[in-house]
Automatic annotation (TrEMBL):
Signal peptide: none annotated. The chain crosses the membrane at residues 133-156, 162-179. Residues 13-29 have a biased composition (Polar residues). It comes from the Eukaryota. This is Uncharacterized protein. It comes from Collybiopsis confluens. Belongs to the major facilitator superfamily. Proton-dependent oligopeptide transporter (POT/PTR) (TC 2.A.17) family. Its main location: membrane. It holds the Pfam family PTR2.
């Protein structure tokens, strides 16, 4: 029987055939497709490694953004040159008040949700996912450096921190968007299977291994 397209709207590349493929996997017949249970394949280890990279990026993102409110809203504590409030004081630096704090942090969140569009375009049209992620990491690193510079005592004392901090938000948001729009698809792409095939489980049950279910399982385990 000639190859036919599998009836799965999630992946037009999944095909079936009467003949074993080059790896010796037996493709399901029409009767087997109608009667056998479908299961997911094993998830490749490199998908988990890439997920760890995303975990590190999330630690970086939330680890710095959680202190933005105090840094913007609260004034520099008396006797502090770094913004640290120590045991009894309120940490802060810029002293711009709640309105400025809410405005800047809201803009940062908005910017981080807009830039993935640009990141997806760059990856699809120019650099590819992996290269775009590498560029995003470098951009985010530059943003973190600018963030540190905005908290240097000499910069805080000279009232130049707000400029460096604002630029850092823009740069970090750009890096975050380029990273987030590509890391999840890259994880799913680590599974290279494109064809349904039949295997026998340890209990002796014949099942169909479905690549679409495997990709769905990857996303479900990633998103929890």
């Amino acid at each position: 029987m000639a190859d036919i397209e599998a009836e799965d709207e999630k992946s037009s590349r999944i095909t079936v055939s009467d003949q074993p493929d080059s790896e010796g996997q037996s493709s399901p017949t029409e009767q087997e497709r109608a009667t056998l249970r479908r299961v997911s394949d094993a998830i490749p280890w490199n998908a988990f490694l890439i997920a760890l990279v995303e975990l590190a990026e999330r630690f970086s993102f939330y680890g710095c953004s959680v202190v933005f409110t105090n840094f913007i809203q609260q004034p520099l504590p008396p006797g502090s040159t770094t913004g640290a409030g120590f045991a009894k004081g309120q940490s802060g630096a810029l002293g711009l008040g709640q309105r400025a704090s809410t405005g800047l942090t809201t803009f940062y969140q908005f910017w981080c949700y807009v830039t993935p569009i640009l990141g997806a375009y760059i990856a699809d049209a120019h650099l590819g996912r992996y290269n775009t992620i590498c560029v995003a990491v470098v951009i985010t690193l530059i943003g973190h450096i600018l963030l540190v510079i905005s908290a240097v005592p000499s910069v805080i004392q000279e009232s130049g921190a707000i400029g460096a901090f604002s630029v850092a938000l823009i740069v970090m948001g750009l890096g975050t968007g380029m990273f987030k729009s590509n890391i999840s698809p890259l994880i799913a792409e680590q599974y290279r299977g494109t064809k349904l095939f039949v295997k026998t489980t340890r209990r002796g049950e014949r099942v169909i291994v479905d690549p679409a279910l495997t990709v769905a399982r990857i996303y479900m385990e990633k998103l929890g």
